[in-house]
Amino acid sequence: MTYQNNREFAKQCDAQDSLAHFRDEFLFPKDKNGNPFVYLCGNSLGLQPKRTQSYIEQELKDWAAHGVEGHTDATHPWLPYHEFLTENMAKLVGAKPSEVVVMNTLTTNLHLLMVSFYQPTQTRYKIVIESDAFPSDKYAVESQLRFHGFDPEDGLILWKPREGEELCRFEDLEAIMETQGGEIALLMIGSTNYYSGQHFPLKKITELGHSHGCMVGFDLAHGAGNIEPHLHETGADFAVWCSYKYINSGPGSLGGLFVHERHAHNPQLKRFAGWWGHNKKTRFNMRHDFDVLPGAEGWQLSNPPILSMAAIRASLEVFAEAGLKNLRAKSIKLTGYLEFLMDELNDPRINIITPRNPDERGAQLSIQVISANKQLHDQLTEAGVISDWREPDVIRVAPTPLYNSFEDVYEFVQRLKSILH
Q: How far is the CA of 315 from the CAs of 204, 227, 374, 400, in angstroms?
């Protein structure tokens, strides 16, 4: 696609965009003058789909009308409610429905799956993560190491960029595995790094880990609803994600998890169990020993929060209508246009640290503005742009294909240019 640096071109792209009408499915926050913000922060919190309110209100009405009988008599009965989400969520992460369940929050799910898939011994106990992983991931794996009696200083291996670089190289992960593979129990990598926006080669990482006898898991917090992770094909042992970023389910909403089908019927896997992971046919008998459900459902603990799931169901239906493959194609063009316009600024202070290769990134550019501080971000907000600031000097900008337009991208760059100059 040949880009042009003018508003008319952006408007023409929007006029030709077959997904443009999905923008009208979302509510945009407005500034003090009532003007919609240029919202480029879907990598932190997605916008609210307009249909979310009615989906939640339906559950409130059913609660009022039926009380406890809503578990079976609600318009969408609560007992099997998580099953209404499974197929669309599975499509979003490239999995079979039996491999996916929506439950808990991301870090809770990560701990539950590490109970099953991090089984250290005295000689094989180390965990590999990327060096600038999201802090919650680092805290979680460090606490798992301590729980099993290992010192994180020794047991945690950081996959780092090289000196003077921002991005991790796969060959450096290969070198780690070559020298320490026999001591490593788990690779737990963020599929798309929150800070740099780098999307890692999931299948290659999985094959590398498995070739050294390691378990492999991924955090898709910035991948689900953004890139196409193809989890089943990738062959990872497990994955976890949240749903409030690109999946637009609301602040603090439920997460999801994936367990590959080869583990679906493995009774040897340790787990922390709860009654919602028990056989559905005898769950309410209350007197049976734990009879685990096959597949991802077997990791459930408790009956789910219906109001949160209603919001997720609303958003997943928008994704199903748009199609992830279509959204990914638009995302590549939209992020590419942002990259083009940033390069057109020709400002020596600006450095894009996200990979230039579209296959190695999602709907995010991390823009380093040398010598800048958070005042730049505050000025952007005052200028009607919602983006995300990360210390020390990076603005994360996410042109989300479901609701952002080419003109949004053009307008952001014009406002940034005005502030910088």
A: 31, 16, 32, 14
Nearest 5°: the CA angle 198, 328, 253 is: 75
Query: The tokens 């689900």 sit on which residue?
Result: 224
94-150: per-residue pLDDT in tens?
999 999 999 999 999 999 999 999 999 999 999 999 999 999 999 999 999 999 999
- What is the four-CA torsion angle of 333, 4, 383, 398, rounded to 10 degrees? 10
Distance CA 395, CA 159 (A): 23
Domain ranges of the chain: 7-49+324-420, 57-320
Whether the full predicted model's pTM is greater than 0.90, yes or no, is: yes
Say if residue 120 is preceded by a cis peptide, omega within 30 of 0.
Answer: no
What would the pLDDT profile of 5-32 be if each residue is shown by its tens digit? 999 999 999 999 999 999 999 999 999 9
Task: Identify whether the C-beta of residue 260 lies closer than 8 Å to the C-beta of residue 236.
Answer: yes
Fold of the CATH domain 57-320: Aspartate Aminotransferase; domain 2 (3.40.640)
Yes or no: say if 180 and 53 are a contact pair by the CB < 8 Å rule: no
Write out the H or E segment, with its range, that includes residue 174: helix 170-180
CA distance 164 to 158: 16
Query: Using CA atoms, how far apart are residues 366 and 353, in angstroms rounded to an integer?
Result: 6
CATH architecture of 7-49+324-420: Alpha-Beta Complex (3.90)
- Rounded to whole angstroms, the Cα distance separating 92 from 103 reads 16
Q: How far apart are CA 303 and CA 391, in angstroms?
A: 39
CA distances from 244 to 45, 103, 184 (A): 6, 13, 32
Question: Which residues in the chain come in under a pLDDT of 70?
Answer: none
